[in-house]
Amino acid sequence: MMTQEQCTHRNNVQSSEKPQVYKVGIYGWRKRCLYFFVLLLMILILINLALTIWILKVMNFTIDGMGNLRITEKGLKLEGASEFLQPLYAKEIHSKPGRPLFLQSSRNISVNIVNSNNQLLTQLVTGSNGFKARGKMFEVKSTSGKLLFSADEQEVVVGAERLRVMGAEGAVFSKSVETPHVRAEPFKELRLESPTRSLVMEAPKGIQILAEAGDIQAICRNELRLESKDGEISLDARRIRLMRLPEGKASTSSSSSGNRQTVYEVCVCPNGRLFLSQAGIGSTCQISNNVCL
């Protein structure tokens, strides 16, 4: 057993020693590196915040949209020029009230209408080569709804009151032309011409050619034919002149008027040919019918 003096001595020895202290934390170069990284992180956060504010300012971000794009109750609203790099799908595109709608492309602008099977029904293409429209029918109407022009596979209809052809060569038709009335402009002449083929005008009830303030000329190279199957052909004028008719020559035995005869009669051959014959006391057509041969 330990005596009282030994216990007292041991306690004195332990009390004379200093207590040990354990340090908790980061010290030295580790602490400096930590402060450096914290400072770098704060700088990056400030730069990121400044860039975000700058982007919001440049792109004009607002509660309603960004830039020229605004989101409204009726849809999207674009102000100013806008460029779309990908296809645009929209139900309706219109401009501001009183402002035009301008579409611009460096190549062409195409508008396609397809069905549920993605088959092309109607196409409208405008480009550097021209303007093309594809569809079953094409119509142009006035503001009042009157049909001005329409075209389909069967016919082309011009609903305007007047069709004006400004070309110097006029209008060229490869097939027949059906019209109830052909009229020239006031103080202008009307000319129907077929340079290399024949010109035929037909009507079931008749053809009327009227020139109230001018002349009518019918010129051809080979044959001019006026035909009426069920009716008659009337030449109603104060003076009718038949130019360059051939003259029939009578036989010497039957000629009694001599060379001073200046009066002629118009004779008709069985084939319809007209010729002149010197007039006599009686008809001289029978003795001058050598022209009919």
UniProtKB/TrEMBL annotation:
It comes from the Eukaryota. GO terms for cellular component: cytoskeleton; sarcoglycan complex; sarcolemma. Belongs to the sarcoglycan beta/delta/gamma/zeta family. Coiled coil: none annotated. It is a single-pass type II membrane protein. It is found in: Cell membrane, Sarcolemma; Cytoplasm, Cytoskeleton. The chain crosses the membrane at residues 33-56. This is Sarcoglycan delta. It comes from Zoarces viviparus (Viviparous eelpout). Keywords: Cell membrane, Cytoplasm, Cytoskeleton, Disulfide bond, Glycoprotein, Membrane, Signal-anchor, Transmembrane, Transmembrane helix. Pfam families: Sarcoglycan_1 (PF04790). GO terms for biological process: cardiac muscle tissue development; heart contraction.
